[in-house]
Specification:
This protein is of the alpha+beta class and 196 residues long. It has five helices and eight strands, in the order ααββββααββββα. The chain has a five-stranded mixed beta sheet. Strands 1-3-6 form a three-stranded antiparallel beta sheet.
Length: 196
């Protein structure tokens, strides 16, 4: 007569355990998605210049005597293979006492051994940049009204590695003005599907 109630208690315990496990797994998955979102937003490549981008660059200029500001401010971007039109933004501020003409060039860091680390040539990586040169005219103390968007076209067969790109700003006559680095990490196209 006691056996049926013991089975009923065992069944209730099993159902309760299953419910707790399902809730725990749901919380774990939500936590992982939240962490992934937080960390990926710091290195997210951008596709256009929006108010948030302009505000972040303006804040970078307001906080210091910077001549060159970049966004994302972490100076790191992740772009997946077979992706077009994603990249980063930069802006220049003229701290000289008169109007100046500047030119900029974006290139792979000359100290980085891309052949041994990524198994490609410098010209291949630089060929992914849509527009890697340009000129800017700024009045005394002025910064660019609209930051420049530097976009990449990453091919499907691009190596999964991190490549340092330099933004080098010079005076029109060739003298150095400012430079900074942006780290581009190529991610696999299937990364998100495989992890979550």
């Amino acid at each position: 007569a006691c056996f049926p109630s013991e089975k009923k208690g065992a069944m209730e315990l099993s159902v309760g355990t299953i419910v707790v496990l399902v809730l725990a797994m749901s919380m774990l998955i939500l936590g992982l998605v939240l962490i992934r979102t937080i960390f990926s937003s710091a290195t997210s490549a951008i596709t256009d210049i929006d108010k948030g981008t302009k505000d972040a660059i303006s804040k970078a200029f307001a906080d210091s005597d910077k001549k060159l500001a970049m966004y994302p401010t972490a100076r790191k971007i992740d772009i997946k293979q077979r992706t077009q039109g994603e990249g980063f933004a930069f802006s220049v501020r003229n701290l000289d006492n008169d109007d100046k003409d500047f030119k900029y060039n974006i290139y792979v860091d000359k100290e980085f051994n891309i052949i041994s680390k990524c198994k490609i040539k410098v010209s291949d990586a630089e060929g992914w940049i849509d527009v890697n040169t340009g000129s800017i005219t700024l009045g005394r103390g002025a910064s660019m009204e609209n930051p420049r968007l530097v976009t990449f076209n990453i091919p499907e067969g691009a190596p999964l590695c991190t490549i340092p790109f330099f933004v080098d700003v010079k005076y029109e006559d060739g003298g150095n003005y400012a430079s900074d680095q942006m780290l581009l990490t190529i991610k696999p196209r299937w990364f998100l599907k495989r992890c979550f």
